[in-house]
Design a protein that fits this description.
CATH class: Alpha Beta
CATH topology: Rossmann fold
Distance between the termini: 12 Å
Oligomer: single chain
Number of helices: 5
Largest sheet: 3 strands, parallel
Strand order of the largest sheet: 1-2-3
Order of helices and strands: HHHEHEHE
Strand content: 15-25%
Helix content: 40-55%
Shape: globular
Number of strands: 3
Length: about 100
């Protein structure tokens, strides 16, 4: 777990899906999510959601979103970037 946290403390995950071929990944992820979640309003847990790319997208569609990630830095960033109260951020812990 410390290895994962250390990696994401240094790696700019918050920018990864916004450029290059990763934009295809972002679009495909959203298409798959649309297939799996019920119509809003509904509550969604975005486990491993990083800095919130999918969480903010879902919150803007009227979902109540709980963003969880093991990286305190990414959760802090998501909390700072959030303009929608429907996207709540939590640092995940190993049970």
């Amino acid at each position: 777990m410390d290895t994962v946290r250390s990696y994401y403390a240094r790696f700019p995950e918050e920018r990864r899906l916004s450029s290059g071929s990763a934009q295809i990944e972002a679009a495909r992820t959203k298409a798959l999510i649309r297939r799996c979640v019920p119509e809003p309003p509904a509550e969604v847990v975005d486990a491993g959601g990083g800095a919130g790319a999918c969480s903010f997208w879902l919150a803007n569609q009227n979902y109540d979103v709980h963003l969880m990630d093991v990286s305190p830095r990414l959760i802090e960033l998501a909390t700072e970037r959030s303009t929608n109260a429907k996207a709540l951020s939590h640092v995940g812990r190993r049970g």
